[in-house]
Amino acid sequence: MEGQALVSASQLVLGVKLRDDARFDNFHGDRNTGAASRLRAICDQPEGIPVVVICGDSDTGKSHLLQAACHYAESQGKSAVCISISELEPFGPEALAGLEEQDIICLDDLDRVAGRDAWEEAVFHLYNRVQDRGNLLMVSLSEVPGALPFHLPDLVSRLSHGLTLQLGIYRDDDRLIILMARAEQRGLVMGDDVAGFIMRRAPRRLGDLLAILDTLDENSLQAQRRLTIPFVKTVMAW
After folding, report:
1. Is CB count within 10 Å lower at the N or C end of the chain?
2. pLDDT, tens only, 198-233
3. Distant-in-sequence, close-in-space partners of 126: CB < 8 Å, separation ≥ 6
4. Cβ neighbours around 92 below 10 Å, total
């Protein structure tokens, strides 16, 4: 059974694809650009940092930064993998075996292992294997390690002694910049009036705002219509 899990997990990792839209150069908004710049510098020169912990709310761009770090590492000729714990869960803690062979290993949503002894132990051993090889581990958490319900003190200690990058919630001006930048990236022409209308009506979560952009993009292509306030009202039933 264990062998089957390892084989399946290996196939999963090999099949993981990075998002094309998650790079350092399109991580927009001023709120967290300092953290992005620091992370990029670490990819160039790890400086003996044992682990990078990216902390923040689910809407602050943690996944984007982990993916961007992998894109950047690959552009520098390094090997990298970014995978969410949720993608590994069906295979059990054994799925972490072999990840240390990558130059950069990014584990997204590490919160999911908190309080799960077998998973915590597996992450702890992965950490040690990564350090033995001189590679770099990056993880994302919703809070600093000591504020989460981890059972294994040694794991909390290891994570706490790395570099912690704290991300902040995006302000409205940042959300507007991100919305317009993503629209431009998709080839959508979005005037200030349309962007302002969307911002006034959309939920405050960045993920919800970008989901609205997905919907508008799809409908705009199908209807061969440019984005206007009446068109947005019709599509979104506002």
Report:
1. N
2. 888 888 777 788 888 889 988 888 777 788 999 988
3. 96, 99, 100, 105, 137
4. 17
Q: Closest Cα partner for 134 from 72, 219, 47, 69?
A: 47
CB 83 within 8 A of CB 48: no
Q: What is the pLDDT of residue 238?
A: 92
Which of 210-223 are b and which e, b meaning 16 or more Cβ less than 10 Å from the residue's Cβ?
A: bebbeebbebbeee
Closest CA to 205 of 229, 236, 174: 174
**What digits encode the pLDDT tens for the residues 87-99?**
899 989 999 999 9
Structure tokens at 109: 């949503």
Q: What does the alpha-carbon distance between residue 206 and residue 142 come to, in Å, rounded to a whole number?
A: 16
Residue written as token pair 């839209």: 21
